[in-house]
Every structure is written in C-alpha cells, then in structure tokens.
Design a protein that fits this description.
This protein is mainly β and 56 residues long. It has a domain of 30 residues. It has no helices and 3 strands. InterPro entries: Creatinase/aminopeptidase-like.
Amino acid sequence: MSIRSEDENELAENMTFHVICGMWMEGFGYEVSESVRVTSTGVETFTSFPRALIHT
C-alpha cells in the first residue's frame, strides 16, 4: 500500500508497514527505512535506535 495524501484506504490498528524514505539522484542516492505498527494511539516502532542527528 502506498500512503499518499489522496489515498482513501483506512489505516487500522495492527497494520504493519515498512516505511521507506529516500532521495535518488543521477549517480547517487540516500535511503532510510523502518518497520512500524499502527496502534490505537499512533504508531509503534520495532527498533530502539536513537533518532537524533549524528554530528561528525
């Protein structure tokens, strides 16, 4: 299922999605993904990895 603003599919509790965000340019790209479960109050992630930006 592709979740877009014009999509009329209803999200239901316990639905699980693998969300992929990315930017693909000619010759390079970036992608990040995470699996999530829809809950009665929002969303549950399956990982506990820190979500802060890493500065080097």
